[in-house]
Amino acid sequence: MSALQLEAMSGRNVLTAFEGELAPVQVSWLYRLGLFIVTLAMILLPLIYVALIMGAGYGVYYHAVNHGAILVGGSFVWRLLAYLTPIVVGGILILFMIKPLFVAVQQPTPLVALAREQQPVLFDFIAKICAIVRAPMPSTINVNCEVNAYAGFNRGLAGFWSNDLNLTIGLPLVYGMRADQLAGIFAHEFGHFAQGTGMRATYLIRNLNLWFARVVYERDAWDQKLVQASQESDLRLGIMLHLARLFVWITRKILWALMMLGHLVSSFMLRQMEYDADRYEARLAGSDTFASTVRQLRRLNAAQYGAFAYLNELWKDGRLANDLPAFIATKLEKLPANFNKQDEEHLVKTKTGFFDTHPCDQDRIENTRREQTRGIFQLEAPATALFQNLEAVSRQASQAHYKLMLGEAFSENNLTSNLDFLQRQQKLDTEQEIASRYFQNLLFLSRPLIVAQQDISAPANVNALRQSLQAARARVLEQSAQTLHALQSYEADKTKKLQELEESFLEALNIRAANGPRVITQTQSLTNPMALDRATEILHKLESEMRTRLAAALGLLYHPEFFSRIPEIEAKRQELAALLPALEKFDAVVEDWRLFHHEFIRMEVVLNHAARVEKDPDNYHIVNRTITSAYTLQSKILEQLSQTGYPFEHTKGRLTLAQYALTAPVSGPEFHTVFAAYSELSEKLFSFYFRAMGRLAVMAEQAEAELGLEPLPKPAPLEENVPA
User: Fold this and answer.
1) What is the dihedral of CA 115, 117, 118, 122, to 10 degrees?
2) What's the whole-number average pLDDT of the chain?
3) Which range of residues forms the domain containing residue 509?
């Protein structure tokens, strides 16, 4: 940025960068008529639902008043049951139909609000854009950590009837956009409000669509109680409750149909409103700037995805970047070299669908290109200059984000500077790159490559060791393609057996066997591990070769000749003394983890086929046995992992491997808690193993370098290595 631009952006002169007037976007009377019809239709849909409720209520009333004759004569119990069933079923149905009308929209945690006296340039900048677009100035301006910006009504429906608006700015946009691009985004949002009636119609349409989606798909404690009561009641009451569940299901299908109809009729008008708002953006910042903004938004979203991947990895050690928006922006520089080309191809191929509320990016670019305007604001300075003390604001927004996402698990002790965070990330990247090279992409969680402390010793003859390592390295390279082919066979065999496990468990749950339920036991399917056929024998042979090579290279850390040649050798030996016992303990639980994985597959079957599983009460015992088995295996794994320390630094201090692997151990065999525990345990074990092997690879490659051995060549991606 030039000195003149810096001076302009740091003072009030930024307002002089606007040149000329912005012509308001005109909408046709046909568009206004269409918007009125769509809004009316969206209002009528809930009224249709209310009419159904009233019809059901009248039906219950009519039956209760006019069909009392059913009670006369014959078996009184069954006649009473015949009379009461429509009343009970109808009453439950009405209750469940009324319940969605009172579903409250969950409000997000309050955002970080900005004050005019703290951000005068930004507020004046936004006020200028509002005046140009002829939209009301928002009464509150907030920031968060999303790659997005949006404007809305304050106080919900209360703000709907006034011009009490709010603007939320995603700080990654500030770090990753130019001033003219961010100005265009603001113009887009305020362009919605420039059409006051249209914005209010949009508010109604979006909230009604959201309401329909929630009541169709969300379940609460009332739904669980109805299911439980229907399964546990005697025959007579059970008939009523099962009928009630049937009619509740039917009403939800009716709601689903209304939801899809509403979504269909509203999507077209919502897309048209986006087109109009895009035209405001283009007229302010220019057609070319609009296109560049769209592409930069796509890049920022990809950067956010990459940033969150690192965030998730370093959070395992309790660390978080103290400035999340700035950290996301750093990922822009780390996008793959061919990202722009691939993204452009994807952009061109994507088409707008009938149910899309927003047009596809290519259609939006074409829409604004027809404007053929250079815009009235072309200040190509970093958008960061619009803010004062941006770093403090960004850190405050980061903490608000972490508190929302992590709750009580977050504290300020978890925060680390972005510089430290980036250095740790770079270290992890380097370690994984070296591990990929050293082990030629042949590290797998289910087949750990473990060396024990007793296998590592100082070599008696360094020259002989050099020759031995040279030969081992050559064999690794020669056999890599064959080994990867063996791995392909191994994985295919494993996948087939897991599919058989799932199918057989479904058969047991569905009780389809002619001679009674076929209950899959651990003995039948799990204690017979996959046979080591020729393919896995090849894999085993090379793993043995790599294990011997690794132990030999690490032995140099204990040879007196290398004490002064390998940097920080004493620290490396201490690290090795912590890593190896932890890896050995990990190796000891791998078989139990495999069994745990199989039980997890069974639990996934239950979750994915819940409606089918619930049909037969005998399934309860099968499911309960699965959960109990999974819980027992989990407890066994954690007990073994608690016997060794976690070898890496953690913000909580010294931890056992069990404390690292599972934040809150499950206290009993409950389905959802055991299910969640498997996910965390597997993710943490995966992370630990590959990180530990990365550290060993760094030390081993450095030791081999001291013998004059060059690093092995970088392996090709797995899919390029594996023969067809």
Assistant:
1) 80
2) 81
3) 437-446+456-721
Nearest CA-CA partner of 82 in 64, 103, 108: 64
Identify which of 365, 383, 188 has the alpha carbon closest to the alpha carbon of residue 294. 365
Task: Based on the fold, state whether residues 393 and 511 are members of the same structural domain.
Answer: no
The strand pairing partners of 377, in sequence order, are 18
Give the separation between CA 459 and CA 161, rounded to whole angstroms: 82
- Three-class secondary structure of residue 150 per DSSP: strand
For strand 140-144 and strand 112-113, is the pairing parallel, antiparallel, or unpaired?
antiparallel
Our measurement of the distance from residue 562's CA atom to the centroid of its chain's CA atoms, rounded to an integer in Å, reads 47
Long-range residue pairs from 598-601, CB within 8 A, at least 24 positions apart, any chain: 598/498, 598/501, 598/525, 598/526, 599/626, 599/629, 599/630, 599/633, 599/678, 600/630, 600/675, 600/678, 601/498, 601/501, 601/502, 601/505
Lowest mean pLDDT among 18-32, 194-208, 362-376, 580-594: 194-208
Residue 579 pLDDT greater than 90, yes or no: yes
Choose between 534 and 298: higher pLDDT.
Answer: 298
d(C-alpha 663, C-alpha 666), whole Å: 10
Q: How do residues 316-334 score in pLDDT, each as one tens digit?
A: 999 999 999 999 999 998 8
Q: Which residues pair with 144 in a beta bridge?
A: 170
* Residues in a beta bridge with 167: 141, 151
Residues 536 and 461 in one domain: yes
Considering the domain architecture, whether residues 346 and 226 belong to the same structural domain is answered as: yes
Quick one: what percent of the chain has pLDDT higher than 70?
Answer: 83
CA–CA dist 85, 91 (Å, integer): 10
- Cβ–Cβ < 8 Å for 476, 553: no
Do residues 104 and 220 lie in contact, with contact meaning Cβ atoms separated by under 8 Å?
Answer: no
pLDDT of residue 704: 92
Pairing mode of beta strands 149-153, 165-170: antiparallel
Q: What's the token pair of residue 651? A: 């913000």
Query: How many C-beta atoms surround the C-beta of residue 328 within 10 A?
Result: 28
User: Which amino acid appears at position 492 of this protein?
Assistant: A
- CA terminus-to-terminus distance, the chain: 52
Q: Are 675 and 607 in contact (CB under 8 A)?
A: yes
Does residue 469 contact residue 553 with C-beta atoms inside 8 Å? yes
Q: Are residues 195 and 329 in the same domain?
A: yes
Q: How far apart are CA 83 and CA 80, in angstroms?
A: 5
pLDDT band at 488 (very low <50, low <70, confident <90, very high): low
395, 498: one domain: no
As a whole number, mean pLDDT of residues 188-204 equals 72
713 lies in the same domain as 636? yes
Q: How many whole angstroms separate alpha carbon 132 and alpha carbon 134? A: 5
- What DSSP string runs through 28-52? -HHHHHHHHHHHHHHHHHHHHHHHH
Q: Could you say which DSSP state residue 711 is in? A: P
Cα separation, 159 vs 659, whole angstroms: 48
Q: List the 149-153 sheet strands across, edge first.
A: 112-113, 140-144, 165-170, 149-153
Provide the number of structural domains found in the chain: 2
**Residue indicated by tokens 């008043």:** 65
**Cβ distance 565 to 706 under 8 Å?**
yes
Same domain, 533 and 658: yes
Q: What is the pLDDT of residues 129-140, one digit of tens each?
A: 999 988 888 889
pTM of the model: 0.76
Are 374 and 286 spatial neighbours (Cβ–Cβ below 8 Å)? yes
User: Which residues make Cβ contacts (< 8 Å) with residue 167, sequence separation at least 6?
Assistant: 126, 138, 140, 141, 142, 149, 150, 151, 186, 189
Average pLDDT, stretch 507-536? 44
